[in-house]
Design brief:
The complex is a heterodimer of chains A (about 625) and B (about 240). With about 625 residues, chain A is an alpha+beta fold. Chain A is built from 14 helices and 20 strands. Chain B contains ten helices and seven strands. Chain B has a five-stranded parallel sheet, sandwiched between helices. A two-stranded antiparallel ribbon of chain B has the order 4-5. The chains are: A alpha+beta (about 625), B alpha/beta (about 240). At the A-B interface, helix 11 and helix 12 of A face helix 6 and helix 8 of B.
Chain lengths: ~625, ~240
């Protein structure tokens, strides 16, 4: 459809140009088209003279041969013009000289040596000063052509510059600028595709990281196309002719194969068995194309290249048919787009083939180069669709992740709450255990002792009273222990003294207090403090009850290791620690072990020492 | 002869404390009651004649702390002692802040009870090492609290505190709760030294130390009120200069 529209547009433009030209003719002088020429052609040393009607398409007239030609085109002007004139030469070359009335008005290249520069690419405009013109004029054009290089001469147009210039400009834009734009566009698309191929690596597969061949095929095809199209505007090629002639041919072949492979990837046939064979076949076609190009350009045997072209076209056509079928079946936008682009390119390619090989037109441009850009468009559509899918996936993933994080946080908070409850429960249990043990060891033991004392009837009321007082003291100490700062031995001793003060007073023992202010010992927890309190209480009780001492000395000093040394000394009657098995004394050892303290008891008449060292 | 009111809900205990007071020649039992209501009613009628209030804390219709406050309001010269089973930190601190000058254990001997009352009238105030330590800690916490506060609220609190202090405590120095000497004494008490030992170490008389402690008790009671004022001011219940 689009090619028909394009043709229509061209026709409209032409019509418009014609209208302009007609207007120009009405107002000023008419433009003259020069078609008839007297040609002197020299091929392989033989010179012939003949009248020809332009265009003179050298490759059609002398296939596989190089040569020179001189065209003489006389023309008559009704009156000598006064304004600037111009000569428009749509195509001539490969090298040429243009003479008007015996004056050289333009030349490009060396007429003596062939296979060098090629000037048969761009349209030419030669401005002609009115001085050079008279009513009877002769235009003489010398050309030298190379084998298979599209040399020759197209019909010329002469007229006032202001009428001729727009015609030239349009042809120039279409042929030279258009090709340049395609070269730049193809380069960009190719580089982007290759960058995508290099960077979009799928690491999710085991072993080798996977790259998408779709990008590679597209990239290679576009770059080859760039080289191929650049030939349309390259007047000074990198290689000499005919070697350079092979480059666009091979590049076009690679482009064809790349486009086919790209299409196969897009259509999702990359893993089919047939595709593996197709790849081999395409590789073979490229090699055959190289061979065909060499045979054609270097040795003048175009038959192989023609066969390769035929097979390439056939392969392309089959792929197009399959692609159209697939697009109709699947209905996917990318498939439809690709099928449409393939179809368009096929139609345009056929048209170009007709123009280049069959039509008599020599100066006409080809259109495939423009329509091939649509493959790049397809690639971009695919890339954009993929990126949209990936970013939408990423969004879903991040939302999902956020939800899961929130869920985990909630779970964690619940677990923490449970743990906190558990810890509190444990704390309560620990406290309960401590209180129970205190009650068991302290109040309970004392009350049961008091009961036994009363039941036996042997104990004096003083003894029972003592037991009960002991019990209450223990209870008070037990309550105090709840408020004692952990590890603060100074406070512990001070409190003990305060609690036992009435008893000390009653027992008439003089107390020597030598207690330093120590930093709390970090390693003593509540439980350990309670043990220590019991130990000191026991040591003091012993001294007060059994020692018949007169003075009692309590010392607390820091040790060099940052610990504490606690000393209870009395000057009582003493005892043999090994012999005496008082309940309190044995519990002293147990408690010392429990809090990892060193306990030393030495006793002799007049001096009993209980030392507790906490390191 | 000091007139003593005994408030104790347990009849046996009440009888024990009443007789302990009666037995002492220098003390006179003014009355013995068993509830907050009875104590209030008695105080409303006879507060001006009372010298010493001896009260249990846990009473059937309320707390002994209320009676202490009521008595102090009606007769500031009346001094209060709390009857405590264990003399434990929480109860003792609450009593001191309510205005009590000390406490008597339930297991004290009758002689001890009379002795403690007389000593208090003579200017002595017993304080346990744990209470001393707690007061020091509280003081230090208050100091740092004040230092960290912005100027304006401190100024408001200061005004409120000074107003109360000048009205109620008379001797309170503005701006500092504890003098350095009081801090030293408290520190030594916290380390378990007796008043006599402290007097020796600090070159003071035991009486001076007792006075320090008694002043301290008054300050603590005032301080607890000023804290309430400070809190009230902060919460906007009172205007800064009310």
């Amino acid at each position: 459809m689009t090619d028909i529209a394009g043709l229509l547009r061209r026709a409209l433009l032409l019509a418009f140009g014609l209208v302009l030209a007609c207007l120009g003719w009405l107002v000023q002088a008419q433009t003259i088209e020069l078609r008839d020429a007297a040609a002197t052609v020299t091929v392989q040393g033989q010179t012939t003279q003949q009248r020809v009607s332009l265009p003179y398409h050298w490759d059609r007239q002398h296939p596989g041969l190089a040569g020179t030609a001189t065209f003489e085109l006389p023309f008559i002007l009704q009156e000598v013009p006064t304004e600037l004139y111009a000569l428009y030469l749509p195509r001539l070359g490969n090298v040429y000289e243009v003479w008007l009335n015996g004056a050289l008005i333009q030349h490009n290249g060396d007429l003596q040596h062939g296979n060098g520069l090629d000037f048969a690419k761009a349209p030419r405009l030669i401005e002609i000063s009115p001085d050079l013109l008279s009513t009877r004029n002769l235009l003489r054009i010398h050309i030298r052509t190379d084998v298979g290089r599209s040399g020759g001469l197209a019909p010329l147009t002469l007229g006032p510059d202001k009428l001729i210039y727009p015609v030239f400009l349009r042809a120039y834009l279409w042929r030279s600028m258009g090709a340049l734009i395609i070269v730049v566009g193809s380069l960009l698309i190719g580089l982007v595709a290759l960058t995508l191929w290099a960077t979009q690596v799928d690491m999710s597969w085991p072993g080798q990281p996977q790259r998408d061949p779709l990008y590679l095929f597209a990239g290679v095809a576009e770059l080859c196309w760039m080289v191929s199209v650049s030939d349309f505007i390259t007047e000074s090629p990198l290689l000499s002719w005919p070697w350079w002639g092979m480059v666009p041919v091979v590049m076009t072949s690679v482009w064809t194969c790349g486009v086919i492979l790209f299409s196969v990837e897009v259509l999702g046939w990359s893993r089919r068995l047939l595709t593996a064979w197709l790849r081999r076949w395409l590789g073979f076609l490229v090699l055959a194309c190289v061979a065909g190009a060499i045979a054609s350009f270097a040795y003048g045997h175009p038959i192989l290249l023609t066969i390769v072209y035929g097979f390439s076209g056939l392969t392309f056509a089959i792929v197009v048919v399959l692609a159209v079928h697939k697009a109709m079946v699947s209905g996917a936008v990318a498939h439809r787009m690709l099928a449409l682009v393939l179809l368009l390119n096929t139609v345009v390619g056929c048209y170009d083939l007709y123009v280049m090989q069959l039509s008599s037109a020599y100066e006409d441009s080809t259109y495939l180069r423009y329509f091939s850009m649509l493959f790049g468009l397809t690639l971009f559509y695919i890339v954009i669709t993929r990126f949209r899918a990936v970013s939408s996936q990423a969004r879903d993933l991040s939302v999902n992740l956020a939800m899961r994080v929130a869920q985990k946080e909630q779970e964690l908070a619940q677990a923490y709450q449970r743990m906190e409850l558990l810890a509190r429960e444990q704390e309560r249990t620990g406290e309960r255990t401590r209180i129970l043990r205190d009650m068991h060891d302290g109040v309970g033991a004392h009350i049961s002792t008091a009961i036994r004392q009363l039941e036996s009837g042997r104990a004096s009321s003083g003894e029972v009273l003592h037991t009960l007082r002991d019990s209450l003291d223990q209870l008070k100490l037990s309550i105090d222990a709840m408020n004692l700062p952990a590890g603060d031995i100074t406070s512990l001793l001070a409190n003990l003294r305060y609690r036992l003060e009435p008893r000390l007073k009653a027992s008439d023992i003089e107390l020597c207090w030598d207690v330093d202010l120590l930093e709390p010992l970090a390693r003593l927890d509540d439980k350990a403090m309670r043990h220590l309190q019991f130990m000191v209480f026991e040591a003091l009780s012993n001294a007060m009850q059994h020692a018949q001492a007169r003075t009692l000395r309590i010392e607390l000093h820091g040790t060099s290791k940052g610990g504490a040394q606690l000393l209870v000394v009395d000057d009582g009657c003493g005892f043999d620690p090994a012999q005496v098995k008082r309940r309190g004394l044995s519990s002293l050892g147990e408690r010392a072990k429990a809090i990892d303290a060193r306990l030393r008891i030495t006793s002799a008449p007049g001096r009993t020492e209980v030392e507790i060292v906490l390191d | 002869m000091w007139r003593v009111l005994v408030v104790e809900d347990d009849p046996q205990m009440r009888e024990f404390f009443s007789s302990s007071v009666s037995r002492c020649a220098e003390l006179q039992l003014a009355a013995s009651v068993g509830t907050v209501a009875q104590a209030r009613a008695w105080l409303d009628a006879n507060a001006s004649t009372l010298d010493v209030l001896l009260t249990d804390l846990g009473l059937p219709d309320g707390s002994g702390l209320d009676i202490i406050g009521h008595a102090a309001q009606l007769n500031p010269a009346c001094e209060s002692l709390v009857i405590s089973m264990f003399g434990d930190e929480a109860n003792v601190l609450a009593s001191i802040e309510a205005g009590a000058l000390g406490y008597i254990h339930k297991d004290s001997t009758p002689g001890d009870i009379a002795q403690t009352i007389l000593a208090m009238r003579a200017g002595a105030s017993p304080i346990s090492p744990m209470i001393a330590r707690r007061v020091l800690m509280k003081y230090r916490a208050d100091q740092s609290h004040k230092e960290n506060k912005p100027a304006a609220p401190v100024a408001h609190a200061q005004v409120a505190m000074n107003n109360i202090a000048s009205d109620d405590a008379r001797k309170n120095e503005p701006g500092s709760l504890l003098s350095p000497r009081e801090q030293d004494v408290l520190g030594l008490i916290a380390r378990g030294f007796s008043y006599a030992e402290i007097a020796r170490l600090q070159n003071l008389t035991v009486h001076t130390i007792q006075t320090h402690i008694k002043n301290l008790y008054a300050k603590l009671s005032v301080h607890s009120k000023s804290e309430a004022v400070f809190e009230a001011t902060r919460m906007g219940l009172l205007k800064p200069n009310d």
